[in-house]
Structure formats: structure tokens, C-alpha cells
Automatic annotation (TrEMBL):
This is YifB family Mg chelatase-like AAA ATPase. The lineage of its organism: Bacteria, Pseudomonadati, Campylobacterota, Epsilonproteobacteria, Campylobacterales. It comes from the Bacteria. Residues 200-400 form the Magnesium chelatase ChlI-like catalytic domain. It comes from Campylobacter canadensis. Residues 409-501 form the Mg chelatase-related protein C-terminal domain.
Length: 503
């Protein structure tokens, strides 16, 4: 066997051919093809691993390993297994169609790396039903990728036996159906329901307006801003948002976890959306993504299909706040560096929480705020009009009284949202989330009756609404109408949507 396949991810998936050749010369292993130190160090790991293989000695020849295409820099310890197998089978003149991934331990065990899941996922889109040999550590994740034929081994010895064996089915990874125990079918598409309610709205006392606003935000992925005094429950509500959001498609779940994998995070396959809450001291590179050479993934892309929560929003770096304009509007981010250009999807629900003034007591009934008017204006001016214009729902939260009680649980809210979501898919035949509708989709799905159109026209003149603001009102009204199971948007829906605009 003188050829195997592998892959790298550098802004896009690149397929790599690994070739081996024995030459009559002094014993040596040479790796060509712009391999970095993580690949070149594999020589030592492979040599140690072979010590655990009985009755095997390295060929007393020069072994040349070539990684093609040779003009592309390559990195990754998961090349170990493929290189070791090519050395072992170097005397057999045949090529293999298998893709091989795995890092070798000194005891010849095969280990996984965090980025492997995203590579497998992208590979499934490029080469459907490709045959892939992977570490046994990641067979759970691989079992969810339905258009790959994955085989799992735990050691170099087992990998050698795999290629010698004619019955490879014993190594095959079975497709995991456990994740689908709580799935539902909508329009012949499988959606995965979240059944985990670790943080429950049952713990939130009072704040009925906030719960209704958050329910709308969760259904349509509408951007929401919560303003209120410290302790009124802004962060508490925001952290519970992901538990009530609509179910994910399997493709969305895998895409979300692929982003985590690119960030070298451990992949944990759950039907729960991502929740990212960076601190206000975070750098712009950590939020947007970046780096000196290759553009790495940032918090915006890691929140894809989930919630991005900025607590104490007004205290974030002004440059970070303004840089949210394009991702919030276009649902994607382009990062350019000298050596690379990267595109990431950023279709998330943006939730911001802030105080009404520097001291935070402006909304308090005891009138304990001691901020001067110019201090409040300066504090509010940190957030520009274009950012406010991209917020679908603005809500001023009141203090919670001692007699306030909890009213509804996350499970009940999730059921209400699911019913509205099913109405959106099955009755209205809309595939996109309401807040992410394009201009063409707005014309198709946001149909107003005559009275509603008159109310919107009047509001546009009175409040001097921009074209973007009008679209935001229409999208939010669409979510309100979905809860009422109404195909057309009425004047009541428009008025409710207008009540949530920042003025």
C-alpha cells in the first residue's frame, strides 16, 4: 500500500494524498510537502508505536513520505496513523481509497483531536459515502454523520488488522439513533427537540412582559435588548433563552458543533443550541475572530444558530459594538488576513443587557439614582443609532416586587414556541427564521391586511422609521402572528411589534 488519503482545514477543506516510497539508502524517514513540526514529530511517535508491534522491524531503507499537493502548508498530529500504515505496508504496491485520521500514542494507541469532527463533517459534504478510518474515541460523533462510511480502531495493531482483514464490517461504526428519541418530523425533515431544562423560567419571578418578549425572540431569533436596574433579572432571563428555542435540524446541530471543533473545543452532541457570553474585557479578535496569520474563529461564529449574550453591553469596547453591524445584518462575517480570507456564518440571536444609567438605579422606584443628565447621555451614546436600529425587541424591565411569583416553566414556553414553529413550517411553508428573512421573503411571508398596512404607514411617518426598521417591525409582527396561528398580519400584531421598538 503506497497511498492513503487525509484532509486539512484551512478556511476550507483540502484533500491530501499521502504517498510512501522506499529507496535503497541509509535508513531514514523523510517527510516532504511543507509539513510543519506537528507532522514531522510524528516520526518519533511512530517509531515508539512500532516497538509495540510484535515481530516487526522498520525497513532498513530510506522512507520518503510525500504530502500532496506539495505547495500547501500542512499541520496536524492526526496524520500519524496514515503515515505509520504506509510505512508498515510499504512493500505492497497498491493504493487505498480510505481516508485515515488519528494521532498515535507512544503505546501505539490511537487518539482523537478536537478538530477532527469538523474535518469529517466538511468531508461528508465533499465526498459523500467516503470510507474513513477514525479513532474509536470519536465513534459517537461519527455515528451522526450519515453520509460517511466510518470504521473505528483503537490501536495501531488493530488498524493493521483492519487493512489485512477482508471482513471490515466488524470495525464499522453503526449509525446512532439515540439522539432521535425526542425527534419530530416537520415537512419530512427531522428536528431534534431539547429535553434538558437545566435553567428554568420557573425560577424567574414576575417579569411577564420580559417572558413574552423572550418568547417572541426565541421563535424568530430576533435580536433583543433588555434594559433595567441591577438585580431585576436581565441576565437570568437571557441565560434561559437557549432552552426554549425551536428544535434544531440534524444538519444545523452538526454545523454548530463543527464551529466548536474549529475552536479546539470538545464536541458534545446535544440537541441544545450554543450560548456564548463573552466578558466586556474581551478583545475584538476574540469576538470577531482573527489572528496574525490564519483567521481563527471568534465568539460571533461560535454562537451560530444559538444565542450571543453581551451583559453590561454599554461597557464593551466601542469598536466591538460597532463591528456588530455587519454580522447582525448579513448573518455572516468575512475576516481578511495577509495569508487568508475566512467566511463564517453568524445566524444567531443577539441578546444585550444594560443598565439605564451608569449607577443603574434610574428605573428604581425609590429614586436613588444620583447620575447627572449629561452622564446618562454620555453612557447611552456608547451605543449608536445604527446598532439600536438592528435590535428587533427593546424592553425596559421593572423592579421585581416581594410578592412576585413564577408563572410559567421553560418546558411550557418551549411547547408554545414549538407549536408556533410547526405552524410556520407546515401551514405557511416558511423555511427561514422570521428575523432572518430576506427582502424577497418579507414580501412573500409578511402579508398585511388593509388595516395593518394603514397602521404601519402611519407609524413610519410619525416615528420616522428607516427602511430597516420597517422590515424589523414586519418580521417581529410575523412572529406575533405565528403565536396566534394567523397567516395574515393584523393591525394588532403590528401595534404589538411597534411597542417593542426603541424610541
Amino acid at each position: 500500500m503506497n497511498k492513503l488519503n487525509c484532509a486539512i482545514y484551512q478556511n476550507e477543506l483540502l484533500l491530501i494524498e499521502i504517498e510512501a516510497k522506499l529507496i535503497n539508502s541509509l535508513p531514514q524517514i523523510k517527510i516532504a510537502g511543507l509539513a510543519d513540526s506537528s507532522i514531522k514529530e510524528s516520526i518519533d511517535r511512530i517509531s515508539a508505536a512500532f516497538c509495540n508491534i510484535e515481530n516487526y522491524k522498520m525497513p532498513p531503507k530510506k522512507i520518503i513520505i510525500n504530502l500532496s499537493p506539495s505547495d500547501v502548508p500542512k499541520s496536524g498530529s492526526y496524520f500519524d496513523l496514515a503515515i505509520a500504515l504506509l510505512i508498515y505496508f510499504a512493500n505492497i504496491e497498491e493504493e487505498s481509497e480510505f481516508f485515515v485520521f488519528g494521532e498515535l500514542g507512544l503505546d501505539a494507541s490511537i487518539k482523537s483531536t478536537n478538530i477532527l469532527f469538523s474535518i469529517l463533517l466538511f468531508l461528508s459534504g465533499v465526498r459523500k459515502n467516503a470510507k474513513v478510518l477514525i479513532p474509536k474515541q470519536m465513534q459517537k460523533e461519527a455515528s451522526l454523520i450519515f453520509n460517511l462510511d466510518c470504521y473505528a480502531v483503537s490501536s495501531l495493531k488493530e488498524a493493521i488488522e483492519f487493512f489485512k482483514s477482508e471482513d471490515k464490517e466488524q470495525f464499522k461504526v453503526k449509525k446512532d439513533d439515540n439522539l432521535f428519541n425526542n425527534s419530530i418530523c416537520i415537512n419530512n425533515e427531522i428536528y431534534l427537540k431539547n429535553t434538558e431544562f437545566t435553567l428554568d423560567f420557573k425560577d424567574v419571578k414576575g417579569q411577564e412582559n420580559a417572558k413574552y418578549a423572550l418568547k417572541l425572540a426565541a421563535l424568530g431569533m430576533h435580536n433583543i435588548m433588555l434594559e433595567g436596574s441591577p438585580g431585576c433579572g436581565k441576565s437570568m432571563c437571557a441565560k434561559r433563552l437557549v432552552y426554549i428555542m425551536p428544535p434544531l435540524k440534524l444538519s444545523e446541530l452538526l454545523e454548530q458543533n463543527a464551529h466548536k471543533s474549529l475552536n479546539q473545543e470538545e464536541v458534545d452532541i446535544k440537541a441544545l443550541r450554543s450560548f456564548r457570553s463573552p466578558h466586556r474585557s474581551s478583545t475584538i479578535s476574540s469576538i470577531l475572530g482573527g489572528g496574525t496569520k490564519n483567521a481563527k474563529i471568534g465568539e460571533l461564529a461560535l454562537a451560530h444558530l444559538g444565542v450571543l449574550f453581551f451583559d453590561e453591553f454599554a461597557y464593551f469596547n466601542k469598536q466591538i459594538i460597532e463591528s456588530l453591524r455587519e454580522p447582525l445584518e448579513d448573518n455572516c462575517i468575512n475576516i481578511s488576513r495577509v495569508n487568508s480570507k475566512t467566511f463564517y456564518k453568524t445566524k444567531f440571536l443577539f441578546c444585550a443587557a444594560l443598565n439605564p444609567c451608569p449607577c443603574g438605579n434610574l428605573f428604581k422606584k425609590d429614586q436613588s439614582c444620583n447620575c447627572m443628565q449629561n452622564m446618562i447621555i454620555k453612557y447611552k451614546s456608547r451605543i449608536s443609532k445604527p446598532i439600536y436600529d438592528r435590535i428587533d425587541i427593546y424592553l425596559a424591565m421593572d423592579e421585581v416586587g416581594p410578592d412576585a411569583k413564577s408563572s410559567i416553566s421553560s418546558k411550557e414556553l418551549a411547547q408554545e414556541i414549538l407549536e408556533a414553529f410547526i405552524f410556520q413550517k407546515e401551514i405557511r411553508k416558511q423555511d427561514e427564521y422570521n428575523a432572518k428573512l430576506s427582502d424577497e421573503d418579507i414580501k412573500k411571508f409578511c402579508i398585511l391586511d388593509e388595516e395593518a398596512q394603514n397602521v404601519l404607514n402611519k407609524a413610519q411617518n410619525v416615528y420616522n422609521l428607516s427602511a430597516r426598521s420597517v422590515n424589523k417591525v414586519l418580521k417581529l409582527a410575523r412572529s406575533i402572528a405565528d403565536f396566534d396561528k394567523s397567516v395574515k398580519i393584523s393591525q394588532t400584531h403590528i401595534k404589538k411589534a411597534l411597542s417593542f421598538r426603541f424610541r
